[in-house]
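Lab notebook page, bench 4
Experiment: in silico fold of construct C2
Operator: M.H.
Input chain length: 225 residues
Purpose: comparison with the prior construct
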Amino acid sequence: MKVTQGQNYDSSFEQVLHKRSDLHILRKLWHISTGSLCLFIFLRSGDPQIFWAHAIMVMALAGFAVDFFRKKYRKMNSFVIKIMGPLMRRSEREGMTGLPFYALGCSLALYFYERDIAILSIMFLVFSDPISSFFGVLYGKDKILPNKSLQGAVAGFFTCYLISLFYTMNTATIGTHILTFSIISGIIGSTSELISAFNVDDNLTIPVLSGLGMTLLNHFIVVFA
């Protein structure tokens, strides 16, 4: 079948549009802005950490309830899509959304980890997840796992590393141990994001596994006393 120049242009133009839509820019901005706002409120509130763990867990359970009922009631699903549609992936329109997993991951981090490590693990989720996805979609040529690329993993590592470095520089005594802690934390954070390739939501794996990894790391390289 002969393909005309116009058909080639249309096809490539559609591919470019599809590639841009895969970036989900609005979703990433929402992810970063809402997470940053919640972190800011948490840090400024002065309320006990356990209070916020409970409050965010309630949000997670409410999100799971909404997802459950909208799958059963088409009108409810249509209403949710009408409001949140621009922020949803195609798969989320008929299935589970990432929001309750996002809240659940943050809540578990606040429940189980000490304050500084909980904050770091949530910052990994807020910033590393969308940044690694962005670079993975744009430049991810070398696949290392299903839907995961070397380029995205490297972007995730540097994001987690820099977050750890700047945070510890402001909360711990300056020394070479901070650099070592930050490098290993970067590896832990990027690895926790890669695990989502095995059909586990990265909104859950990043804060929970990062927090666990940094808790163990802090026993050997003490940054947070």
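Observations: The radius of gyration is 20 Å. Residues 15 and 21 are 10 Å apart (CA to CA).
Next step: discuss at group meeting.
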